[in-house]
Design brief:
single chain; about 190 residues; alpha/beta; 9 helices; globular
Length: about 190
């Protein structure tokens, strides 16, 4: 299911049977991508064990397949996070599609990669992933900056006027970082 940032932030715990979250975003959105995986983990619940991987072009999904296929003695579920700096290679795309068949209610895969363009969004691996997953293609635009700022302020139980938010976003050219700075200063 293709979502924009605002719809994604409104997800409820039992809103989806998806076993995969694919986040496509440019480098400027990396702090948001990290926080969105945290958000997803919270939505799934407390009984997930986190496994994080930083993937390059040599990354092999065999490691993840072993995690998915090994059963937990204590009934723990796996939240597997794979962060690509670029995009999956052709071989990694094939491995990922094979891995999809193994995902069940005990495993959730959060995959992030560089921004996918129109041609890449039409690629077979994305098309096969998209119907059975949550897919978030971050644009890094003003609407997303606004939605993200409002979300962060709500999480800190703060509010900001529309004019104040407009000023904050316009002064920082819709950069996500100032919202983090305000929350950091507030929490000191």
């Amino acid at each position: 299911m293709l979502l924009n940032l605002n719809k994604f932030l409104q997800l409820q715990k039992a809103s989806s049977d998806a076993k995969l979250l694919l986040i496509s975003a440019s480098e400027e959105c990396s702090p948001v991508v990290h926080n969105l995986s945290e958000f997803m983990l919270k939505q799934l619940g407390a009984d997930y064990v986190r496994h994080s991987f930083s993937a390059d072009r040599y990354f092999n999904f065999q490691i993840i397949q072993e995690i998915v296929q090994s059963a937990s003695l204590f009934g723990d579920k796996n939240f597997i996070e794979v962060n690509f700096k670029t995009k999956p290679t052709l071989e990694q795309q094939k491995q990922l599609l094979a891995l999809l068949t193994l995902l069940d209610e005990q495993n959730f895969l959060c995959l992030s990669c560089d921004k996918l363009d129109k041609k890449e969004l039409a690629a077979p691996w994305v098309q096969q992933i998209e119907p059975a997953s949550l897919f978030l293609n971050l644009q890094g635009d003003a609407n997303e900056s606004r939605a993200w700022a409002i979300y962060l302020f709500k999480q800190a139980e703060l509010s900001i006027s529309e004019e104040g938010l407009d000023l904050l976003l316009s002064m920082n050219q819709n950069n996500f970082a100032p919202c983090y700075l305000i929350l950091f200063l507030y929490n000191r």
